[in-house]
Structures are given as C-alpha cells and as structure tokens.
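Researcher: Let's continue the batch. This sequence belongs to MerR family transcriptional regulator, and it's 172 residues. Same format as the previous ones, please.
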Amino acid sequence: MDKSPDAFRTISEVAEELDLPQHVLRFWETRFSQIKPMKRGGGRRYYRPQDVELIKGIRHMLYDQGYTIKGVQKLLRDNGNQFVVAIGRGDMAAVEAITQQKVAEAKEKGADDEMLVGKPKAKPSRRFFGMGMEEEGPVSADDGRLSRDNRALLQETLFDLLECKRLLDQVR
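Model: Same format as before. Here are the structure tokens for MerR family transcriptional regulator:
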C-alpha cells in the first residue's frame, strides 16, 4: 500500500527513496540545521514532505554537482531552502526567479553585484597526485606544490574528517 504524497516518511523510507544510507541522513541533520525531522518517542524520525524535498536538493548539490557541505550551507544561508529544493527538482524557472529576487534585494541595499550561486570545488585530478601538467608546466610528485583548488579541497576534507572524529569521540 503506497503512502499519500503528504504522509510523513520514516528514515528508512527516505533513505531507500534517495538511495542513501540512514547514517548519512543523521549526519546531514548535524550539518544542515534546515533538516528537522519530527522525532517521536524513542527518537524515531518522521520526515515531512518538505524535509524530503530539501534532502533531495542537498543530495543533488553534493553528489551530482560536486559541492562541498560548506558550499551547500552557504547556498542555503544566502538563498534559502526553496532555492535548493528547486535545484533538486530541476526547476530552473524557480531558481531563476529566486536569483532575480536576491539580485533585486541586493541592489536595493546598495550591495555590489555578487555571485549568488557558488561554483563547486574542483575535483581532484591527476595533477593532484603529481602525475599531470600544471598550467605553468609539469609538476613532479616530490616538489610538493598543489594548486590552490586542490589545497582548498584538502583543507575542507581535513575539516570534515576532524568534525567526524569529534562526533565519533562524543559517542564513545
């Protein structure tokens, strides 16, 4: 028996629908304050339809678009939940409308035109491992140079790993 589209979903239903492990959903709750499932006795989570839509958008930004957690947090902070939901749905008309509204608000405040939508971080390439060509020429593995994008990627990864360690230490 299928549930109504307006019905609340358990964590297992959401995890199955979005092809995500349940622990990832729990982790994202710690990273994105906008994800707020209802919790019942015993800590059971029930996700509202709007929670599921937001998670779909976050999943799309992280897995399909290559954004970092910090990048998606900034998008949510700067543009709101509906922006990420619209991106997750592929509703480019809504994305454009929200973007135009933000540009208009920024102009009213006298702010400079700024980019409202960030760009995903560069994915590691063969250059990252010292196997390719850098813009200035070849980079050997032992000269220790990293591109700015790869250095930022490493720093963000280190931050995320340290935060995971902190969370694991709290559980112990």
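Researcher: Any comment?
Model: Confidence is low (pLDDT under 50) at residues 113-122, 124-142.
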